[in-house]
Amino acid sequence: MSIVFSQLRAFHAVAAHGGFTAASRVLNVGQPTLTIQVKELEQTYGVELLIRKSRRTELTEAGSALFEITRGIMSFCDEAHELLAAHGKATKGHLRVATVGPFHATEIIAAFKRDHPAVQISTMLGNSERTLRHIIDFEADVAILAEVPEDTRVTMIPYRTHRVVVFVNGDHPWFKRKSVKLRELTDQPFVLRERGSTTRRAFEATMQAEGVTIEPVFEIESREGVWKAVERGLGISVVADFEFVPHPNLRALEISDRTIKTQYNIAHHSGRGHSPMVKAFLETVRRMKGTDRNR
């Protein structure tokens, strides 16, 4: 028995957009046609995929499992379109970039855009764990993220390594210093990103290994929120050195007796290494790294 692609596409659109009405607009197919296609798919395999409610459609357990598969299938269909459209021509299409922050993303995207001006680019911001998930779920084509647990579904390419530094506001006794020792951080009030943050994970791992206790007083799921909280005197914090932006009321301090590093990587789904868009992005990154070595 071979599965009917139009039925699979109809199911995916309904699952992705939360209902038959929205899916019909996206696919430009009549709602009754989609309803019939999904119903035929369910009847063919004797399984319920969707629960129709008055204003929304929910996935059953089988529907959720199938949706994980169709994400990949539809992504590969888009990739096939990119390949055929780009064959013998300049790279065109839409590149989805997931990233942990704007700093590396903007420099790479600017270089990529110079190479491929016809490509549309959208970005998704989040911590490293969320960014990795975007790749696994085929929601992003490429990602820029820091260290995460290895996953066979994802290919990681080292990009840059950065030191973790402490930063304080103008009222802090350390404001005029250039560095601080690790044990001086004991019992300092810390404002930290959420636990999915790689900088926080690297910092806390080093502190624990050295037997140093820190006192998180505030946790914010936003890089900008952390900066504002430190500026207002709620505590001190840590950041990768390249992310520290000079500010009249903030000072970055090196940790003089320890080197805490974060490794930033370029990532893509292991099954999508042959994508013209992914290959073009990796070529831009490779050229940038070569330029850095020659400086």
Task: Characterize this entry briefly.
With 295 residues, the protein is of the alpha/beta class.
Give a structural overview.
There is one protein chain. The chain is α/β, with parallel strands linked by helices and 295 residues long. Helices cover 42% and strands 24% of the residues. It contains 9 helices and 12 strands. The chain has helices at residues 5-17, 20-27, 31-45, 61-86, 102-115, 128-136, 198-209, 223-231, 276-294; strands at residues 50-52, 57-59, 93-99, 119-125, 142-145, 154-169, 179-180, 189-192, 215-219, 237-240, 250-255, 261-269. Strands 3, 4, 5, 6, 7, 10, 11 and 12 form an 8-stranded mixed beta sheet that branches. A two-stranded antiparallel sheet has the order 1-2. A two-stranded parallel sheet has the order 8-9. The radius of gyration is 24 Å and the shape is elongated.
